[in-house]
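Tutorial, part two.
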Amino acid sequence: MRLTDITALAHRDGNRIDLAWTNPAPAQDPGVRVVRRTGTHPADPDDGVVVADGTGLLRATDSGLQGETVYYYTLFPYHGSPRVYDPDPHNRVSAMAIAPYDFAGRIYSLLPAIYRRYDAGRVPAPGTGLPADRDKGELRRFLDLPGGELDRLYSLARAALSLTDLDRVEGLLLPLLADWIGWQTDYGLPIAKQRSEIRFAPWLYQTVGGVANLDATVARITGRPNRTKEFVHNVARTNRPERLNLWSTVRAAGTTAFPDPALASVDFAYDGRPAAVTEADGSVLFLYHTLRLHGWDIWSKRYADGAWQPSRPVVDRPGIDKHPSAALVGSRLWLFWQGCDPAQTGAGRIWRIWFTTRDGGPGGTFAAPAVFGDPGTERRMPTAVADNAGGLWLFWLESVGGTWQVRYNRHDGTNWVLATAATMPMGGGKPPRVEDDLFVLFHPTSAGQRLWLFWARHEPGGPPGQTRWSVVFRVKQGLDPAAADWTPISALPKTGTGGYHDRQPAALPTPSGDLEVFVSSTSAGGWGIVRSTLAIGPLTWSAPQQAVGGPSARRAPLAVGTGAGTLLVFRSNQSLVYASDTFRATRIADHRYGGTATVLTGDAAKLALRGEYEDFQTYTYDAGSNGVRTNDDRIARDTVGLYLTPGTADPDAIKAMLSRLAGELAGFLPVTVRAVFIPS
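Running the prediction step on this input gives:
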């Protein structure tokens, strides 16, 4: 029910406000509850200090207030028992309490003493007049008239010092402050919300066009949550491959499932896995290549005490340095990688294997890089491992007569054992065909199966006449590099027609002595991490299980034992979600890492995201029809999508909300950007 004639007046004596109103329907709602707050009007009967509460009330006095402070009142009519409130948004009023500066007393004290002497004898007769005036003469009581107004004027003048203080200024004056900075006031908002809008308006202006700004603007205008998406990252470009960042997940000892992964580093690459060594202090040092301004470098990142430490450069120079492999022999850390100088042309531009060493433990420094072997021989894809006899094994691909062959050698701590590196022998009368993803593992307990070499190559799979990436392996039984004691080549089995890819194998010994092998596989649709157990005796495989899946690509796994569990590191183009620096409540999804990837029709998880906020797939540019673009033409560099949650299924209400939003949003978007509305 709406009350009428609501007034709030500051009493001339100060620290007090008198309220009055008219109840047009006392039979309907005989009771009124008056609630007071500072800063904004009370929103409900319990939102503030109760000034008066009863039936038949038409006025109330609020005393003991602080001078020069604005107080906000809401009147809540009610009826019945238990009471039922009948609120109305118009039952609000505000007033500023004045402070008693006693200007009347100051003026009186300035009069000649003879006036005060004669006036003292003219006090009211006992039992007459106001209690506050019983000691005042006629002249002193007369001066209360101008003195009270001077108190009021002085209080108003002092309150004017706070006219630009958003926390103290009278709510009716907030539109003036908003006009000074060009902010359009929404009079339908509570006073507290109006204050908040003006306070954050400068930050909104500074971040015009930002995702967080748009989220905040939509929430302010509609009162509903929103997520803003930049469709520029969904435009397919042939020169924009997937940016594979480093992600990690830790499986606790004694468990089988890996929890959801977390970002380890945004030092991205387009291919290749990291290498890792466990240091003497128990930390794990990861080495990987990443793109810098001057080319590809080798960087390191340490995992210690369950947390990632900052990244550090190891090989920082112009050129291409990629695919590192590392092994720790005693206190010496060996680091190998393949390098190429793009400035060279012709026969001089070849891949070479480089290496460096570090002595002195984790605090040591790496020596200057040097070329491994003959600089005129093309070599690539090094993979190194330490054995339990103080030796270092290095395997690599070497170009021999235009054919890539696997070569290997062992360093005994002083020299390379073989003057001429050995070549991995034929397998079943056929070349081993090592095409990519070379990985070597030394088994610490199996004396007859010391060196396990895994790699990927194409094998028949899928429809007739097609091939798929497949993982194969073979074992070198002893530690004599001159002995050709290699087992036959075996393969990781595939299910069905084998119409999916398996590659980038990485193995880790289990407590029982078998091997847990992780591969990057498309068996579930897109690229994910699959693990299987390889029994080292019969060389049989367990059924594959998904270790890390999802719509994003999961590539190049590497598993390391940490004592407390298994740390699995891999590369992924998963989008990042982070909080806005300006508006902490806003969560922003960064889709820039998705890249332009080939569509896999069997990747149901990724295809299910089409049109959703989380969709990171790429499409051809939406140019519209006849030069006109609609809400459905979204895939464009100049388009942002507003994924709204209207909170209603009424199409007319949604249409009205979008119309209001479109009218006000223009001031918060660059002129080169268009917004499309996508209600959920």
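The first helix runs from residue 103 to 110. In part three we will examine how such features are distributed along the chain.
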